[in-house]
Amino acid sequence: MSASVERGADLTTPLASRRLARLRRFDLVGLAVTLITLAAAVLWAFPLYWGLVTTFKPEYEIVRPGVQLWPEHFTLENYLHVLLQTKIGLWYVNSLITSGAVTIIVVMMSAGAGYAISQLDFPGRRFFWWMILASFMVPVSALIVNHFILMSQFRLINTLAGVVGPQLVYGPVTVIIYKQFFDSVPKDFREAAVMDGSSELQLLFRIYLPMNWGVTTALAIITFIGAWNQFLWPFLAISSEDKMNITVGITQVHDAFGVSYGRDLAVAMLAAMPVAVIYLIFQRRVTQAIMLSAGIKG
Amino acid sequence: MAAKNGEAAAPHVELRRVTKRYGPVTAISDLSLAVDKGSFTALLGPSGCGKSTLLRMIAGLEPITAGQCFIDNLDVTDVPPAQRRIAMVFQSYALYPHMTVRQNIAFSLSVAGQPRKVQNERAQEVARILQLEPYLDRRPAELSGGQRQRVAIGRALVRKPEVFLFDEPLSNLDAKLRVQMRLELAKLHADLGTTMIYVTHDQTEAMTLADKIVVLDKGVISQVGSPLELYNAPANKFVAAFIGSPSMNFFPVDIAAINGRTASVVLPGGRTVEIDIATGAGARSAELGVRPEHLTVVDPKDPAATFAGAVAIIEHLGNSTILYVETAVGQLIVEGEGDLDAKSGQTVGLRLNQSHARLFGATGATL
């Protein structure tokens, strides 16, 4: 018996050391991965840092050759110019109105469409579902000309409504996500509510949507961020400075001497700020939403 | 079906020649059933027998392929569920997780556009009946299984329905709570006197709660009767086997002669016993069914011993003892007194209480 114990001890020692060695090897791999991701993070964040630092430099420092990681003469002139000499306040309001409208309408429409496709039995349901899936395959930029012609026929070019309109069809993914979530609501909830006398609208607004608030907030946030960041369509649809979005407004910040990098970057920073703030506040929800749209249920 | 002698005897809920098909599969086949006003009727059967489908058809959640459904003499076959004046308690309870107990209970009133004051009053009243008052502002996730069950009942109760439908409401509870809730349901039925239809696969629930049990097998009614009728006079082998725990013993026998209402049955081993029958003229062979409590353990050498065999397994339940005895006719289950002195492997004799034995013919029907 003692022999077997000894043999057991002999066996455990190499096993333990093997495990230790494996742990060490993992540690090395972990370290390497950490270093690579850190390098990638620096590489990714550097342009942001560079842009931010540039906004605090006077123009002559910006255009000077060489790399200057910190401003020699710290200035707020670029921000003051953008805030006081341009229509940035109006652009913010326009962005807020159009992005807000896009978010509300897209979320409501998607919830309704998702509910109908998931829960209602009507002729053509599968056809609609395939249409929505197929619309995924069409790149939005390929529709820009059609959108322009359509909006001009509606006489909506150069109006905020014209900015909002085509963006409502940008996101079939929200319909798909809602459908998936509504599909996963147990049938008993629906039947209990039907027995209680709920109409389909009551079912949607009192049962299905409140039971999926998390999805709605997540989808609303990414839709808002997406709409806020839109450039191509608002740029084409709007020509008067008073109706521009903040993203399009950036193109208007120049003076008689041509491009001013400091001011351009300052307005870009100000344009990105609300999105960055929203992201920081709702970080988890945004991650969840991105996972949802990638097909991974959070 | 209950006889119709004028209005007073008219059934409260009635299904007339109802059929339900899912594509090529027939779940319910030409079924007729009458449920009396104020009765507690249990739909009992194994899974897949169509009992839940039947309940859902009464509720209006499942369209009826052929036949009619009447509630209070009104044809409700095509009436939407909410207008049938019935309420249903689901197996999963289906409590809305985002609403408080109060909102859950008052949901149907709120959907119907009742003023907030009325909703609160009614919710309060129902909560008092079900002892849910301290939990009115909690959400379902903060409640225990039994409390959730009560909220589900409360949600049905608040609508003051004509008929309550229960779809296996106790199956998600642990054994102890199930017994307690069973009592509460019985009390609720006694207090309200409302017609209740209760689906279960648990014969104990059906036997203890219902005053009428409908046993279903493969979409057809096997037997309708009171719990004791089903237990003592099963219409066929299926009912005999399904009702009673431990279940009835069956073994094949030869019929030597039939004299009026008595059959002389030759047991394996040659002994002849007399069994009461109702029909069955001309039958040569049959299956004999004996309930475990109708077999008595005796000395193997006792001349009254019908069978002899070795005890394979013994289960002491305190108030009774269950023996599994290997005999010449196969394994027989025997229920004896709690203090029965027997050991595993011991040879015992079994005396048959022949007045309680039943004969089943080739089709399974009771002779």
> Cα distance, first to last residue of chain B?
22 Å
What's the CATH superfamily of the largest domain in chain B, by name? P-loop containing nucleotide triphosphate hydrolases
Low-pLDDT ranges of chain A? 1-10
Low-confidence residue ranges of chain B: 1-8
- The portion of residues forming beta strands of chain B comes to 25-35%
| Helix-and-strand structural type of chain B | alpha+beta
Number of strands of chain B: 20
Please provide the count of β strands of chain A: 2
Briefly note the structural class of the backbone of chain A.
Answer: mainly alpha
CATH topology of the largest domain in chain B: Rossmann fold
Shape of chain A: flat
Quick summary of this structure?
The complex is a heterodimer of chains A (298) and B (367). Chain A is an all-alpha fold. Chain A starts with a helix and ends in a 5-residue tail after the last helix.
Descriptive report:
The complex is a heterodimer of chains A (298) and B (367). With 298 residues, chain A is an all-alpha fold. Chain A has 2 domains: 54 residues; 217 residues, MetI-like (MetI-like fold, Orthogonal Bundle). Helices cover 74% and strands 1% of the residues of chain A. Chain A has a two-stranded antiparallel ribbon with strand order 1-2. In chain A, strand 1 and strand 2 form a beta hairpin. Chain A is flat, with a radius of gyration of 27 Å. The N terminus of chain A is likely disordered. Chain B is an alpha+beta fold. Chain B folds into 2 domains: 229 residues, Rossmann fold (3-Layer(aba) Sandwich); 115 residues, OB fold (Dihydrolipoamide Acetyltransferase, E2P). Chain B is built from 8 helices and 20 strands. In chain B, the strands form 4 sheets. Chain B has a 6-stranded mixed beta sheet with strand order 6-7-8-3-9-10, with helices on both faces. A 5-stranded antiparallel beta sheet of chain B has the order 13-12-11-14-20. In chain B, helix 2 packs across helix 3 and helix 2 packs parallel to helix 4. The N terminus of chain B is likely disordered. At the A-B interface, helix 9 and helix 10 of A face strand 6 and helix 2 of B.
